[in-house]
Amino acid sequence: MIRAYKFVMRPTVRQDQALREMLRDHCSLYNGALQERRDAYRHVSKTTVRYGQQSAQLKEIRAFDPQRQGRWSFSSQQATLRRLDKAFAAFFRRIKAGDTPGYPRFRGVARFDTVDFPKDGDGCRWDSTPHDPVTRVRFQGVGHVRVRVHQHRPVAGKVKTVSLKREGKRWYVILTADQAQPEPLRATGSVVGIDLGIANFLADSNGGFVDNPRHGRKAAAKLEDAQQALSRCKRGSKRRRKAVETVARLHRKVRRQRLDHAHKTAHALVAEHDFIAHEDLKIRNMGKTPAPKPDPGQPGAFLPNGAASKAGLNRSIADAGWGVFLAILNAKAEGAGRVVMAVDPRNTSRRCPECGNSAKENRPTQEKFHCVSCGHNAHADTVGALNVLRAGLVRRDANPA
Question: What does R_g of the chain's alpha carbons equal in angstroms?
Answer without folding.
Answer: 26
